[in-house]
Design a protein that fits this description.
With 235 residues, this protein is α+β, with helices and mostly antiparallel strands. The chain has two domains: 38 residues; 181 residues, Porin. Strands 1, 2, 3, 4, 5, 6, 7, 8, 9 and 10 form a ten-stranded antiparallel beta sheet that branches. Strand 6 and strand 7 form a beta hairpin. The longest helix has 36 residues.
């Protein structure tokens, strides 16, 4: 009888030990699995990094510098003066971001040259005045555009763009007509549109802008407008 009890006790003890061993192994495996499953941070960080790199590739940043020539005219309603084209020049720089759709902001020094003929002086008069005068402006073009060849933008691009151009007059060149800063409005707002062609690191742009505010302070209608061509470099 005692032998059977000892055998039963040994058997029970063995089963308990086996059960404890299996339980411990099971929970250890479960804990290990949980650690692996609940520690995905390195993978998420890598995925987030790759996502950011892809987004950065989609964006396209450029810095541009340029110089250009312009033809300037005044839409003037005056019995005294008649406007003819005057040739000016400009220098500028800008920052551009985007690929197919893009925006751009910049600043340019715009030397707008106008030519006014005084109609009250006879053409054969010896007192005929030189009607050429210049208005020096700082323009701030704010641009939205579309690049139809954005896929090949690093090699070649074809763009159209529209701009709002706040312009600030900073001086008037010497002239025979007696015009000075006291005679003109110091601020104007231009609407602008144009086209651009990019080839490698060089670009060419041509456009037209129109001033919505009269150039002169008096009641005479004198809206300025300009045709320009720019040649520049992009980085």
């Amino acid at each position: 009888m005692r032998k059977n009890q000892n055998f039963f006790s040994l058997k029970s003890t063995t089963l308990i030990l086996v059960f404890l061993f299996l339980s411990n192994a099971f929970f250890a495996q479960t804990d290990s699995t949980q650690v692996v499953q609940t520690d995905p941070k390195p993978v998420e960080v890598q995925q987030e990094k790759e996502k950011k790199q892809k987004e950065d590739k989609k964006r396209k940043d450029e810095f541009k510098v340029f110089a250009g020539i312009s033809l300037n005219h005044l839409s003037i309603d005056s019995e005294k003066y008649e406007s003819t084209l005057g040739a000016g020049w400009l220098l500028g720089a800008s920052y551009k971001r985007g690929k197919f759709f893009y925006w751009e902001i910049g600043a340019r020094y715009n030397n707008r040259v106008y030519n006014l003929d005084d109609q009250t002086i006879p053409a054969d008069s010896s007192s005929l005045l030189d009607g050429v005068f210049s208005v020096r402006n700082i323009d701030v073009p704010i641009t939205l555009g579309v690049n139809f060849l954005s896929i090949t933008s690093r090699i070649v691009g074809l763009r159209i763009f529209v701009c709002a151009v706040p312009a600030f007059a900073i001086g008037v060149g010497g002239n025979d007509l007696g015009f000075s800063m006291d005679n003109i409005n110091a601020f104007n707002l231009y609407g602008q549109g144009g086209v651009g062609v990019d080839v490698a690191f060089i670009f060419l742009e041509a456009g037209f802008n129109y001033g919505f505010i009269d150039l002169f302070k008096n009641d005479i209608q004198s809206n300025p407008y300009q045709i320009f061509i720019n040649l520049g470099f992009r980085f």
